[in-house]
Write a structure and sequence with these properties.
305 residues; paralog of FGE (formylglycine-generating enzyme); four-stranded mixed beta sheet; three-stranded antiparallel beta sheet; 12% strand; globular
Length: 305
């Protein structure tokens, strides 16, 4: 039912907080005082450690539940059906979301100014809320387009994870409901369910909330900021995806976004919940992390004696 699927995606877009119009324009030159802070924040950038995800099968997607409409195991929508076991080759994933310090350093290296929305946010939280440069440096990057996220990862010799890679890193091989297990999220486990009357993001440091880590030790695979992945969003992709290393659809209108954000409700933090956004979208609720394919092992013939 295409109409129902479109409504489903619209619901996931709204649930992620992606309500602003797409705008990929770069920002103008910041004021002298703001530029000083941007430089200081960039100078505090710390790269994320990398976590190795072993090869093997994992449980992707959800089983259909029709008799428990408010249950945590009930699918958010039909795009996460059917549940199946999928094989992934080994790969590496950043333990943490890319930080604001790293993203500002990247823009500085490219001689680009941050987008206007990000400049306004940083200036506001510094001047009104007295947030320090040190705190901002450990915030997750936000107001990032899908292309900027991919360019950042490429500059580090990495890439965005595929949607399947993201899901395995979030839930492990056995299909955990949330990164930490089956219990409902709370403030110890995730940054979520926040509200600010002026829509100011309420964020946590990218290396915080140890109790909410995924089975492989990754932080904030639920909440804080939702995350761009490599794939186009395929409404019915799970119905025909390959059993090994699914690359995502070959084209589409939206790019997939996973994990829920600081303002998301509980259902968006489920490891199987899917969402999407225009690749040119900038949002206070979407950031990213990088991945990297593991070197392929080469088998050498035995040496003659």
């Amino acid at each position: 039912m295409p109409g129902a699927v479109l409504l489903s995606l619209a619901a996931s877009v709204l649930a992620l907080g992606l309500t602003a119009a797409p705008d990929a324009r770069a920002g103008g030159k910041p004021s002298t005082e703001l530029a000083r802070h941007l430089t200081a924040i960039a100078a505090l950038a710390q790269p994320s450690p990398t976590v190795s995800i072993p090869e093997g099968k994992f449980i992707l997607g959800s089983k259909r539940v029709d008799d428990d409409p408010y249950g945590l195991w009930t699918q958010f929508d039909d795009t996460e059906l059917p549940q199946q076991r999928v094989w992934l080759d080994s790969y590496d994933m950043d333990r943490d979301e890319v930080s604001l310090g790293e993203f500002l350093a990247f823009l500085h290296q490219r001689k680009q100014h941050p987008p206007e929305e990000l400049q306004k946010l940083i200036w506001h939280v510094i001047t009104v809320h007295s947030v320090s440069d040190q705190t901002l440096a450990r915030w997750p990057a936000l107001y990032v387009t899908w292309k900027e996220a991919g360019d950042f990862c490429a500059s580090r010799g990495k890439r965005l994870p595929t949607e399947a890679e993201w899901e395995k890193a979030a839930r492990g091989p056995d299909g955990k409901l949330f990164p930490w297990g089956a219990s409902a999220p709370d403030s110890r486990l995730a940054m979520f369910g926040q509200h600010h009357v002026h829509e100011i993001p309420i964020l946590a440091a990218v290396d915080s909330h140890d109790e909410g880590r995924s089975p492989y030790g990754l932080h904030h695979m639920a909440g804080n900021v939702a995350e761009w992945v490599q794939d186009w969003f395929g409404f019915d992709y799970y119905a025909y995806l390959p059993e090994r290393n699914p690359p995502g659809p070959s084209n589409g209108r939206y790019k997939s976004v996973r994990g829920g954000s600081w303002k998301s409700k509980t259902i968006m933090l489920r490891t199987a919940t899917r969402g999407g956004a225009s690749p040119d979208q900038r949002s206070a609720t979407v950031g990213f992390r990088c991945a990297q394919s593991s070197p392929q092992k080469t088998e050498h013939p035995p040496r003659a004696k």
